[in-house]
UniProtKB/TrEMBL annotation:
InterPro entries: Pup_ligase/deamidase. This is Pup ligase PafA. GO terms for biological process: modification-dependent protein catabolic process; proteasomal protein catabolic process; protein pupylation. It comes from Leptospirillum ferriphilum. It comes from the Bacteria. GO terms for molecular function: ATP binding; ligase activity. Keywords: Ligase.
């Protein structure tokens, strides 16, 4: 897959002890700052920003990491952005590397008894949501119009049957923003954490008025060649398999759309369909297409898979892996038995785990204990997180072993500009007196010329070496 992808994760947090109301917010913010400062100033795993990146990102708020990614505090969350990744396994490694980066800092500081980072998308108490934002490099020629993206929207609405992280309960907090001609039956468990919070098909901002496709045009690369597709509707996956499939399937469908090969299909009311599919544990997953036909999410996914197999079989290793696994998972889902996919899909694994516990303890679905289990599934601490138990016991499929995951916190992916950025960060860390500005698209040291890195699929290692050779002052011993 000749492409670049990346993932931004906003982490939730659980504080130990009795809740102190508003004081918890200040305590949480203090914890975030301690962890951030430990990563940058003590562990020296990156460079803290010296400049003001934006009105809400002052100097010292965050910085770029030795793996080429970025860590910062944003809207009351610690947020981690992976470096640009060229392969699905690189993406999985970098994603898990972010978890390890935070957890290693917490452990080293002796704070594991005080704070836990939670990689999910909802706060059951406040009904707030936090994001898992996907980024895909596409050509500037991509048909970025409402009509051109109808097939992509249809795919995104229905892919949750594979990519959903699952959750206990339901949220109707955004219903003042949309009109849904549906009743509100009780929802004990649903497939997607973000489905209840999506209120638009297209929109340019990321807060409150969340959309299926974010339309902001911020390529962070050569704007004449590329567009960065920014998606907000996805869940934070613990499953390595679900993470890889989410990005792999989505990029293949974007290729189909760009190449004019996507099925001519759309969804009549995608916002309502997104929610309806998520709420339907019968696994019928019915929706209405633009022609008024009743189809299932499985029908839609099979249409895209059929086109992709015909167009891209044999293209490369990643593509062939995705196409094969896509077919297997749809075949298993067609049997309408979640237990058949608990080894690969987050929502099914969580549903199976929580259902078994509920039955053994004779609990109602609205028992707060189940919400706690929902959160603990996403605890990134291997000593506490319920998902990690499944993985360690071999009940959930790993794509890379822990030894490879650990490298994701400090080593950049190959074949992208993250290599050159990481190389520059290492050089600056060796020269702590240096002034610097680091951006996704370039670097500057000592207020000199800017080295622009506008091609995400280039590693820039030679250019970075030459840039530092020209711009570093001579050694006093020279």
């Amino acid at each position: 897959m000749k492409t670049v992808v990346g993932l931004e994760t906003e982490y939730g947090a659980l504080l130990s002890g009795v809740s102190q109301g508003m004081r918890d917010l200040f305590r949480q913010e203090e914890m975030f700052q301690k962890v951030r400062d430990h990563i940058f100033h003590v562990q020296r795993k990156g460079l803290i920003d010296q400049h003001q990146r934006a009105y809400d990102e002052p100097p010292g708020n965050g910085g770029f990491l030795r793996n080429g990614g970025r860590l910062y505090i944003d809207m009351g969350h610690v947020e981690y952005a992976t470096p640009e990744c060229h392969t699905l396994l690189d993406l999985v490694r970098a994603d898990r590397g972010g978890d390890l980066l935070l957890q290693q800092a917490v452990d080293e500081m002796g704070l594991s008894g005080e704070i836990s980072f939670i990689k999910n998308n909802i706060d059951h108490q406040t009904l707030a949501t936090f994001g898992s934002h996907e980024n895909y490099l596409v050509s500037r020629d991509f048909p970025f119009t409402e009509r051109g993206m109808e097939p992509l929207v249809a795919f995104l609405v229905t892919r949750q049957i594979v990519t959903g992280a699952g959750r206990v309960g339901v949220s109707y907090v955004n219903d003042s923003l949309i009109s849904l001609d549906t009743e509100r039956p009780p929802v004990h468990f649903q497939i997607s954490q973000r489905a209840d919070y999506i209120v638009n098909k297209f929109y340019q901002w990321v807060q409150m008025n969340r959309s299926i496709v974010n339309t902001r045009d911020e390529p962070l690369s050569d704007p004449l060649q590329y567009r960065r597709m920014h998606l907000l509707l996805g869940d934070s996956n613990m499953s390595q398999f679900a993470t890889a499939m989410k990005f792999g399937m989505t990029k293949i469908v974007m290729d189909l759309v760009e190449d004019g090969l996507a099925p001519a299909v759309g969804v009549r009311d995608p916002v309502q369909a997104c929610r309806a599919i998520s709420h339907d544990l019968s696994m019928r997953w019915n929706l209405q297409d633009l022609e008024g036909r009743i189809l299932s999410a499985l029908d839609m996914q099979e249409m895209f898979l059929e086109k992709a197999v015909k167009a891209y079989s044999g293209r490369d290793e990643d593509t062939d892996w995705v196409l094969e696994e896509w077919g297997k998972i749809l075949s298993d889902l067609a049997k309408k038995d979640p237990s058949l996919v608990t080894d690969r899909l987050d929502w099914a694994a969580k549903y199976n785990m929580i259902s078994a516990f509920r039955e053994s303890e004779n609990l109602e679905w609205n028992d707060p204990w189940l919400e706690s289990l929902d959160l603990e599934y996403h605890n990134i601490d291997p000593a506490k997180g319920l998902f990690h138990i499944l993985e360690e016991e071999g009940r959930h499929r790993r794509l890379i072993p822990p030894s490879i995951s650990e490298t994701g916190a400090t080593c950049p992916p190959s074949f992208t500009r993250a290599e050159g950025r990481a190389q520059a960060i290492d050089r600056i860390l060796e020269n702590p007196e240096m002034l610097y500005i680091i951006q996704w698209f370039g670097i500057q040291i000592n207020q000199g010329d800017v080295l622009y890195m506008l091609e995400p699929l280039k590693n820039y290692r030679d250019e970075v070496s030459e840039y530092f050779r020209k711009n570093l002052p001579p050694s006093p011993d020279a």
